[in-house]
């Protein structure tokens, strides 16, 4: 958190988000994530304690909205915000700088991950080709092709199983916290590299 917001800056920014109208905790978390372009998403453990402190200070109030609790800025909170407009502008400037830093770090992480993944995929594909080449398909024996020579149906079943397993893992992870850009870019690149590797294997004579 210190790398994103300076001390006390998050409290001020939460007040600014509430200025446009009441919001529940998840809406505030989502608004912050969108402001940072998905490069930063605060946890509930970061947001709710600060909202509670703002409520204690009389700067925000709560109101029931079905099963959720909405937070709204109070007149005292608006007065506080108006007194600190210049500080809020500085916070916005720092957020923009943080977004650029985080984006740069993410790009470097992605590039580093992709280099390693491409090397791993290339090694795996080469090992698979070597294993396939070691199988003796001597036609003169008149024997049927070994079980390792899979049919189209077998291949489709393998793809379906892979899809189902990965989809389950992604949903489990997304249930804990949003998938970050590194995960999404890694997934996209790995799938594309895997497609290319399989296509190249199919084209080999």
What does this structure look like?
This protein has 7 helices and 3 strands; from the N terminus they run H-E-H-H-E-E-H-H-H-H. It is elongated, with a radius of gyration of 26 Å. It folds into 2 domains: 9-101, Winged helix-like DNA-binding domain superfamily/Winged helix DNA-binding domain (Arc Repressor Mutant, subunit A, Orthogonal Bundle); 102-133 and 148-203. Helix 5 (85-133) packs parallel to helix 7. The N and C termini lie far apart (55 Å). The protein has helices at residues 9-18, 25-35, 44-56, 75-83, 85-133, 152-176, 181-203; strands at 23-24, 60-65, 68-73. The chain has a 3-stranded antiparallel beta sheet with strand order 1-3-2. With 205 residues, it is mainly alpha-helical.
For the record, the CATH class of the largest domain is: Mainly Alpha
N-to-C order of helices and strands: HEHHEEHHHH
Q: What's the overall geometry?
A: elongated
Count of strand segments:
3
* CATH fold title of the largest domain: Arc Repressor Mutant, subunit A
Q: Which structural category fits the helices and strands? A: mainly alpha
* Beta-strand content: 5-15%
The major sheet is characterized as: 3 strands, antiparallel
Query: Mean of residue pLDDT?
Result: 77
Distance between the termini: 55 Å
Compact overview of the structure:
This protein is mostly helical.
């Amino acid at each position: 958190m210190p790398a994103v917001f300076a001390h006390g800056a998050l409290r001020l920014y939460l007040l600014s988000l509430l200025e446009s109208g009441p919001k529940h905790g998840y809406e505030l978390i989502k608004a912050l994530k969108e402001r940072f372009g998905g490069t930063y998403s605060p946890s509930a453990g970061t947001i709710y304690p600060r909202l509670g402190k703002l409520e204690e200070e009389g700067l925000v109030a709560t109101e029931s909205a079905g099963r959720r609790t909405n937070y709204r800025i109070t007149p005292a909170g608006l007065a506080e915000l108006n007194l600190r407009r210049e500080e809020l502008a500085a916070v916005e400037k720092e957020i923009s700088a943080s977004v650029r830093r985080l984006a740069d770090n993410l790009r470097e992480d992605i590039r580093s991950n992709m280099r390693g993944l491409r090397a791993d995929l290339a090694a795996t594909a080469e090992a698979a080709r070597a294993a396939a080449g070691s199988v003796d398909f001597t036609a003169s024996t008149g024997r049927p092709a070994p079980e390792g020579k899979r049919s189209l149906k077998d291949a489709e079943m393998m793809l379906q199983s892979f899809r189902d397993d990965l989809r389950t893992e992604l949903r489990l992870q997304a249930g804990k916290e949003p998938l970050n850009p590194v995960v999404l870019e890694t997934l996209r690149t790995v799938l594309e590299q895997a497609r290319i590797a399989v296509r190249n294997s199919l084209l080999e004579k």
